[in-house]
Amino acid sequence: MDAIPPSARAVASPSPEGYDGRTYYGRPALKAAPFEKWVVGGYIFIAGLSGAAQLLSTVIDLGGQGKGDAVVSRGRWLSLLAPTIGTALLIYDLKTPKRFYNMLRIAKRTSPMSIGTWILMSFSAFSGLTFSLDVFSRWFPRLGQIARVTQLPAAAAGAGLCTYTASLLSATSTPLWAAAPKSLAVRFSSSSMASGAAALSLGARRAGHRRRARDLDTVLLASLALELAATSAAETTYREKGVSAGRESGVLPTAAALGTLLPFGLHALSALAGNRHTRMQQLASAVALVGSLCLRVGVLETGNASANNPQDYFRLARPQNLPDKT
Question: Residue 243 and residue 236: Cα distance in Å, rounded?
Fold first, then answer.
C-alpha cells in the first residue's frame, strides 16, 4: 500500500505538461532600481552643484574678499536649483507627491533616505533665506550681515547634499553601488565641487572677473584630480570583489571620463597660450559640467546592469574567505 497521499504525490511528481524548461539558474537575484536614470541622475547632479556653489560662495565670503562680490551672489542664486528644479525632479520620480510629504513625518538616523530628505529640507530653508536676505540687502544693508550668518548652516547642509546621494545608493544591495561606498562618496563629492566651481567660473569669466575665475579653475582641477583618484580606487575594489557587469566602455562612462580628463588638456593649452584663450577656459568648465552629469547617470545605469547580473551579486555576497568557483 502506497504511504504517500495523492495530494503529496502530485506535488512530488509534477506533470511535465506546460513546463518550458526554465530554471532560476542564471536569473537575476535582485531587481534593478526603478529609477528613471536621467531624472534621478539630473537631481543628484543639481543637488551636488547647488550644495557646492553655496559652500564655495560661503568660503569666498568668509575669506574677507566676498563683500559685494558678484561670485558670492551668483553662488546663492545657484543654490536655489536644488530647492526648485531638484525637488521637482525628486517628486516626479516618486510618482506620488504624497510620498515626499510622508518622508517629512519622521526622522530616522539609520535611514539614508530620511537623513537625505532632512538635509535637502535644511538646505532649502537656509539657502532660500540667505538668498532672500542677500537680495533685500540692497535696500536694507543690515540684512547682508544676517545673510553672512544664515549662510553657515546653508553651507553645512550643502556639504551634506554633495555626498548623501552616494550613501543612499551604497545602502542598497546593488553590487556596483555597495562594493565601494567610500570611493563612491568621494567621487560624488569631488564631482559636485568640480561642477560648482565650473558654474561659478563660467559666470565670473563672463562678467570679466578673470582673477576670481582662475581661482575657481584651480578648485575645479583639484576636484577633478581627486575624482580621478577615487575612480581608480573604485575600479581596483570592483576587480577585487568581482563586480564586472556594466563597467564596459559605453557612451555615458566615456562622456564622464572625458568630462574629467579633457578640462586638464584645455587648461594646459590655454596656459601655453598665456591664458589668453577665454573661450577655451569656458569650454573646459562646460565640459566639466557635462561630465559631472554623465557620471551620475552612468553610475545609475551601470549599477542596474550589475543588479541584473547574478554573478556580481553572488560574488559580493560570498564570504571573503571562500574561493570563487564561478
Answer: 10
Q: Angle at which helices 278-307 and 210-241 pack, to 10 degrees?
A: 20
User: What DSSP state is assigned to residue 80?
Assistant: G
In whole angstroms, how far apart are CA 91 and each of 88, 292, 296, 299? 5, 22, 18, 21
CB 122 within 8 A of CB 83: no
Burial 200-215 (b: 16+ CB within 10 A, else e): bbbbbbeeebeebbeb
CA distance 246 to 303: 7
> Which backbone phi and psi does 185 adopt, to 5 degrees?
-65, -40
Q: How far apart are CA 326 and CA 315, in angstroms?
A: 8
Name the residue type at position 302: T
Return d(Cα 247, Cα 273) in angstroms, integer: 37
Domains of the chain, CATH where assigned: 33-309 (1.20.1630.10)
Quote the cell numbers at residue 188: 560624488
Residue that the C-alpha cell 557620471 belongs to: 295
Q: What is the mean pLDDT of residues 67-90?
A: 87
- Which grid cell sits at 105? 513625518
What pLDDT digit, counting tens, does each position of 260-289 carry? Answer: 999 998 888 887 776 666 788 889 999 999
**How does DSSP assign 30-90, residue by residue?**
SPPP---HHHHHHHHHHHHHHHHHHHHHHHHIIIII-TT-HHHHHHHHHGGGIIIIIHHHH
Identify whether the C-beta of residue 224 lies closer than 8 Å to the C-beta of residue 288. Answer: yes
The SS3 call for residue 108 is coil
**pLDDT tens profile 163-222:** 999 998 998 888 889 889 999 999 999 999 999 999 999 988 888 888 888 899 999 999
pTM of the model: 0.85
